[in-house]
Write a structure and sequence with these properties.
single chain, 8-stranded mixed β-sheet, elongated, alpha/beta, 12 helices
Length: 269
């Protein structure tokens, strides 16, 4: 792999991406990073063998720029980059809510932009990265983005109009599962279990359930029904979840996440 890739604003997800790319065969010499703090740049260089550069240097020398700064910082970064980014550079945005048109309006005409929403399981190579093309991005550009993000998990192409929904479901999705595990752990303690045992029981149950969902080919309703015997413990628990409106609350929560993604796109911080 000879193309140079620069990760701008390299935080945890950016570092996970770099690490995954190196394991997938990328030469660290072809990977550039930018950071706000010099000590962070030195840490990345020592840990991964990548090259720290300035944002302007990255724009001039890298073939692909991956922008991983927070949505509210993206406008400032683009102002800095715009004078240095040639129109043939591939720009990949990992910022929630910001449409590709935001980049196209600020960069050289015909600059290819790809929008990607990944999630924190990138840290363990189990990310779900959702990829959409801007107006000037080709199938080749999408394939290159898939090659990069495929190093840390699975990828899925969607029309950009579906990105806000994907952000709500997948980008924020791990937090919902962590929240559920937190609540179930508290319930286990209330039922008399030590915290560590409750945690182990729930985590392994979650892993097993996820593998069944992925590998069985069965609808989740069918899998749930297989656990739910007549007049048993599970149906009593399900009844309480329904009585407390858990399903409706989840739907409302995801709608709220989608709406916030749209607000970020409109510039509301």
């Amino acid at each position: 792999m000879t193309q140079k890739v620069a990760v701008l604003g390299t935080g945890k997800i950016g570092e996970a991406l770099l690490s995954g790319m190196i394991r997938a065969g990328w030469d660290p010499a072809d990977l550039l990073v930018t950071t706000r703090r010099p000590e962070r740049a030195k840490e990345l260089q020592e840990r991964h063998g990548v090259t720290p550069v300035t944002n302007a240097e990255a724009a001039k020398s890298a073939d692909t720029l991956i922008l991983t700064v927070k949505p509210q910082d993206m406008g400032t970064l683009l102002d800095e980059l715009a004078p240095h980014v040639p129109a043939d550079r591939l720009v990949i945005s990992g910022a929630a809510g910001i449409p590709t048109s935001f980049f196209e309006e600020r960069l050289a005409q015909s600059t290819p932009v790809v929008r990607v929403m990944t999630n924190t399981p990138a840290l363990v190579d189990e990310a779900m990265s959702v990829i959409s093309a801007g107006s000037h991005a080709t199938a080749e550009h999408l394939a290159h983005a898939e090659e990069i993000f495929g190093a840390v998990g699975k990828t899925l192409r969607v029309p950009e109009s579906q990105q806000d929904a994907c952000t709500a479901l997948s980008g924020s999705g791990p937090a919902y599962f962590f929240y559920l595990v937190e609540a179930m752990t508290d319930a286990g303690i209330l039922l008399g279990l030590p915290r560590d045992k409750a945690h182990d029981l729930i985590v392994q149950s979650a892993i097993g359930a996820a593998v069944m969902l992925r590998d069985s080919g069965e609808h989740p309703v069918k899998l749930r029904e297989n656990v739910t015997s007549p007049a048993g413990t599970t149906i009593n628990a399900i009844r309480e979840l329904e009585n407390h409106g858990v399903r409706a609350a989840l739907i409302a929560a995801l709608e709220a996440a989608r709406d916030r993604s749209r607000e970020l796109a409109s510039g509301n911080s």
